[in-house]
Amino acid sequence: MLSQIPLGIGSRESAGFDTFIGLGNEQTIADIKACVASSGEQYLYLWGPAGTGKSHLLQAGCREAKSRSDRIAYIPLSQAGVFSPGILSDLGALDLVCLDDIHLICGESAWELALFRLFDQLRAARSRLIVSADRPPARLPIALGDLSSRLEWGLCCQLSPLDDAGRIQLLLENARVRGLALTRETATYILNHAARDAGSLLELMDRLDQASLAAQHKLTIPFVKTVMAKRDDA
Fold first, then answer.
1. Tens digits of per-residue pLDDT, 43-87?
2. Last residue of a domain, one of 135, 158, 181
3. What is the tens place of the pLDDT at every residue in 123-180?
4. Which domain holds residue 47?
5. What whole-number distance in Å separates Cα of residue 125 and Cα of residue 193?
6. Does residue 1 lie in a domain region?
7. What is the CATH number of the domain that holds 168?
8. At 33, which CATH number?
9. pTM score
């Protein structure tokens, strides 16, 4: 079933609107929720640098729509090399399609044509489309002119990176959702010794969660330091 299969490609189980720290991005999150709920724009373009949470929000939107029995698909185009443009040809009848990192298929004629056709199919069906990229639509190096103009039709939302206070809150909230005890002191240590973008911090929390469970150990600074050192030595 199409609504089941694509969401599993590269998706994160903890990705939900309730686990996204949106300091400074409140309006963007509201616009995405409205699009997902069919009470806002039919088409939304989300852009921002790597690690700002674009994938998290697209997956959250899919999970929200799926909870209402909508037919959905989440396609991470970072994995475009493992499937063909034909994957887009079967999505026109769905209620919501989320395409992540479309900048990665720019200049690929088969992908551009498939996206153009999907765009028109979804628009005709009054279905919703959310795409993400690392830059605004006018700066995408798209060869297909008709696709370039289509991508500029909808609501364009910029996602800004978190500041340090937001990153600390992200770590604390993610730990809370996982049932992990994480002190602000330990969260500050993590922030000062790890990659600071949201994506990397969440990947580290995945590792710490697994290591804590395996060792039956709390997330103390010495334990966190040991887990982080193992990755550095790998």
1. 999 999 988 889 999 999 999 999 999 999 999 999 888 889 999
2. 158
3. 999 999 999 999 999 999 999 999 999 999 999 999 988 899 999 999 999 899 899 9
4. 6-158
5. 48
6. no
7. 1.10.8
8. 3.40.50.300
9. 0.82
